[in-house]
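Title: Request for sanity check on 2,3-bisphosphoglycerate-dependent phosphoglycerate mutase prediction

Description:
We are preparing a figure and want to confirm that the structure record we downloaded matches what your pipeline produces today. Could someone re-run it with the sequence below and paste the raw structure tokens into this thread? We only need the token string, no images.
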Amino acid sequence: MTSTLILLRHGESEWNAKNLFTGWVDVALTEKGRGEAVRGGELLKEAGVLPDVVHTSLQRRAINTAALALDAADRHWIPVRRSWRLNERHYGALQGKDKKQTLEQYGEEQFMLWRRSFDVPPPPLDDADEFSQVGDPRYADLGADMPRTECLKDVIARLLPYWESAIIPDLQAGNTVLIAAHGNSLRAIVKHLDGISDDDIAGLNIPTGMPLVYRLDETFTPTVAGGEYLDPEAAAAAAAAVANQGR
Ligand SMILES: O=C(O)[C@H](O)COP(=O)(O)O
């Protein structure tokens, strides 16, 4: 039996538009981002890939993208589950910083280490920083799990328990599963699914608002490596733009 998984990065956010590192800061979608989410849902409807259940992070850009896409696909009524484990990578002390200025200040090598290396996190964010999530009620139960910074390796470590305990059972039950999440939490899932090496994952960028569809076999291995974007040309152009952020 094969199952279907749809990965959808949120549409353009206000801080994507301003080119700021965002991470766990809970910014809204722009008008363009809302349009991308609706278009994502239309693509799902046109392709007949209809989610039975949706999983999102606790961040409004993913929550609202899911709602807009599902409404456009006439699937606004499906069950929804949310977890902090699908949140964007916590960007540490870079949260709120301008990507271009960071590149200019620290240079290409350090910028890329922080942004795309597998296991080098940015410096931690101070709890007193205006962009800290310490004290945010939605994370009150996290205790020692509350990150102050994360690299992709950390994201995989906190995401996999949710993958195993919540997403795999939905796939096993024969559901078409939509995950509406973030650039780096989705990179973590793609790395896991496709068995991408720690080095090669640096070159993978996920565009905003473009549904990426995986058909998975009974061992949850993709039948087509890398999955399939429903609008491959637009996705390739948008992924290249993500890769070039800061330049
Ligand atoms: O958190 C952010 O800034 C973005 O959502 C992802 O940014 P990145 O592509 O620079 O990792």
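Thanks, this matches our download. The chain has one domain: 3-243.
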